[in-house]
Write a structure and sequence with these properties.
alpha/beta; Archaeosine Trna-guanine Transglycosylase, Chain: A, domain 4; Transcription Regulator spoIIAA; Rossmann fold; 3 domains; 27% helix; 30% strand; binds S-adenosyl-L-homocysteine
Length: 387
């Protein structure tokens, strides 16, 4: 087996449970290694650390797949998939739709799989996985017996591994849009054309948490997409809900969902840029939800992105009735919770409001966070009382 040897004292993070080896941590490469090739990683003292996939040009040079001296074969994939699925069934019994593989957190660096009943939607982040597409697919078929598997590999992060953007049918027939159910609420999901894999599972537990505060309240759901927070609010007996999004496609989905769940009398829609909408409107709401797309996509634009969050939150705070709730989210991995809170303090100062933290929340449990791998933690969702 070909191997890479780490430089002196460069094994701490990896030994503490992180599966990435950065290119600058490698001292020696035994033989020429190909893109995505399986490789053994050893410490400076030549102790085996594990096995993984190599990338000659990425910042992440090796993604470890195992800490044992074992082949990375179908048996290993199947075992990882089974373990991940069994956990999801435990936390969401009677449900068939969730993120079933969340990359590093499930021991498969570079692979994400969202399960929509018998449809699996895959996202591949690494060249090592891309190269083993067939083995991954075989394992998925063996474990899940799906009707259909598609790959939504049309996202920019693939560039970091030199991978092209694509959408592919991997197995079965082209899927049609379908109804899924979450906590007795029905959503129309189009995994081929929708944003990301068609639905945002990561906010599920936060949508449930918000329900504690919405009964008989007027709710504004900003960046609504297919109406996730809006529909949970309606189910939580909100008095009225206004869902706002810039995308007409997203709002079409929300409208279909409002009808299907018989809450079109409570829920209404508005197509607008949220920044403009919040600036123009004079209305106030008892509960405001802010769930923007990542405003910081690269570390280099952190400052600018934080100003974006501050601006947005300042405008949203001005629209909250005194004593009301702001549920404010940030899915930018580069923004720490500390940064996010600091920007909120400034937003509140500028808006002349006082904010109390009721709950500091994160991504849903089907996106588990590995404490040794901070990259697995990206979503912040703070529930604030606004005075
Ligand atoms: N809250 C949603 C997920 C939001 S995804 C849920 O619970 O499922 C982010 C959404 O923001 C997308 O639907 C996108 O169309 C919308 N969006 C992005 N920029 C926007 C802007 N400037 N104004 C309004 N909507 C925007």
């Amino acid at each position: 087996m070909k191997s890479v040897t780490l430089k002196k004292n460069q094994d701490k993070r990896v030994l503490a449970g992180h599966p990435w080896v950065f290119s600058n941590e490698i001292g020696d490469v035994s033989e020429a290694l190909e893109l995505g090739e399986e490789v053994a990683v050893q410490s400076y003292q030549k102790r085996l650390i594990g096995r993984g996939f190599y990338h000659p040009r990425s910042l992440i040079a090796v993604r470890l797949m195992t800490r044992n001296d074992e082949p990375i074969d179908k048996r290993l994939w199947v075992e990882r998939l089974r373990r991940a699925w069994s956990f999801r069934r435990r936390i969401y019994p009677q449900h068939e739709c969730y993120r079933v593989i969340f990359g590093e957190s499930d021991g498969i660096s570079g692979l994400v799989v969202d399960k929509y009943g018998s449809l699996l939607v895959v996202q591949v982040f690494s060249a090592g996985i891309e190269r083993r597409k067939q083995m991954v697919l075989d394992a998925l078929i063996e474990v899940f017996n799906p009707r259909c598997v598609i790959a939504r590999n049309d996202f920019v992060a693939r560039e970091q591994e030199g991978l092209p953007q694509s959408k592919e049918l991997w197995f079965g027939e082209m899927p049609e849009a379908q109804w899924i159910e979450q906590d007795a609420i029905r959503f129309w999901v189009d995994s081929w054309n929708g944003q990301k894999t068609g639905f945002f599972f990561d906010q599920r537990d936060n949508r449930v948490a918000l329900q504690q505060y919405v009964t008989n309240q007027r709710v504004l759901d900003c960046f609504s997409y297919s109406g996730g927070f809006a529909l949970y609010s309606a189910a939580g007996a909100a008095r009225s809900v206004l869902a706002v999004d810039a995308s007409s496609e997203a709002l079409k989905g929300a409208e279909v969902n409002f009808k299907e769940n018989r809450c079109q009398r409570i829920c209404s829609l508005c197509q607008a840029d949220i920044f403009e909408f919040l600036k123009q409107t004079r209305d106030r709401y008892d509960v405001v939800v802010l769930d923007p797309p990542a405003l910081v996509k690269r570390k280099i634009s952190l400052k600018e992105g934080l100003r974006g969050y501050q601006n947005l939150n300042q405008r949203a705070l001005a629209r909250v009735e005194p004593g009301g709730i702001l549920a404010t989210c940030c899915c930018s991995y580069h923004v720490t919770e500390e940064d996010f809170r600091a920007q909120l303090v400034e937003a509140a100062r500028r808006a002349g409001r006082e904010i109390q933290l009721l709950e500091s929340r994160t991504q849903a449990r089907d996106h588990p966070i590995l404490l040794a791998v901070r990259e697995t933690s990206y979503l912040k969702c703070l529930l604030l009382r606004v005075l």
